[in-house]
Amino acid sequence: MASLFTNPKFTPNSQFSTSNPTRFLLHNATHHASSIHSTKSAQFTAIFCSATQASRPEYIPNRISDPRYVRVFDTTLRDGEQSPGASMTSKEKLDIARQLAKLGVDIIEGGFPAASKDDFEAVKMIAQEVGNAVDENGYVPVICGLARCNKNDILAAWEAVKYAKRPRINTFVATSEIHMKHKLKKTKEEVIDTARSMVRYARSLGCADVEFSPEDAGRGVIIQSDGKWNDECQ
């Protein structure tokens, strides 16, 4: 669980010595921090955000060449918008996407293109502008569109993100027993077949970067390497 620190400041990396180049280091002004869960003062732990050519490995879909590197997938513009009062216009989404790119975010989930015409246009606009803004180090964010596991959603996502230099489709389907039975009304085997066929369909459109997300996976099941279903996760 994260702790809340008082008086945080962003300090340029040049003021710190490190073998891993970064853009910023978040630290506490007094070098100590008070946790919201404790009245005791605790030494602040430095957190580095990779954002330079030297520390960012070449982007290859579904693979990270440096095992120490963690890709940041930001879903502010899609999942974040579901928070009460957080609805955004297309222009506001574009403005936030520009700032996320300045932060060096690896993947920006721009929205759910099939949800509405406005969301489609917002994702398309982000893909066209932010998804083509290559900086001096060769960095450009991946622009991702969310889609349910059906052809209409996936096609809409592709039509919106395809303008980016690095487009991605994130397709999902429910995987927990309760969702499959009562929402999808499908068997486990049918859900697996749907997921496989829709990932293939996304790739057939020309999208080399396809992500699959198992919805409600925390209450789902484990699929073993041999393809058999394991015990229900609790």
Report what the structure shows:
- The chain is of the alpha/beta class and 234 residues long.
- It has helices spanning 90-103, 117-129, 151-161, 177-184, 188-204; strands spanning 8-12, 24-28, 32-34, 41-43, 47-48, 73-74, 107-111, 142-148, 167-174, 210-215, 221-223, 229-232.
- The strands form four sheets. It has a five-stranded parallel β-sheet with strand order 6-7-8-9-10. A three-stranded antiparallel β-sheet has the order 1-2-5, with no helix packed on it. Strands 3-4 form a two-stranded antiparallel ribbon.
- The longest helix is centred in the last third of the chain and has 17 residues, at 188-204.
- The two termini are 21 Å apart.
Q: Which value, in Å, is the CA radius of gyration?
A: 20 Å
Order of neighbouring strands in the sheet with most strands: 6-7-8-9-10
SSE sequence, one letter per element: EEEEEEHEHEHEHHEEE
Determine the fraction of residues in helical runs and give it as a percent range: 25-40%
Uncertain runs are 1-39, 44-50
Structural class: alpha/beta
Largest sheet: 5 strands, parallel
Q: Treating each run of at least 4 consecutive H or I residues as one helix, how many helices? A: 5
Distance between the termini: 21 Å
The proportion of strand residues reads 15-25%
Shape: globular
Number of β-strand runs: 12
Average pLDDT taken over every residue: 80
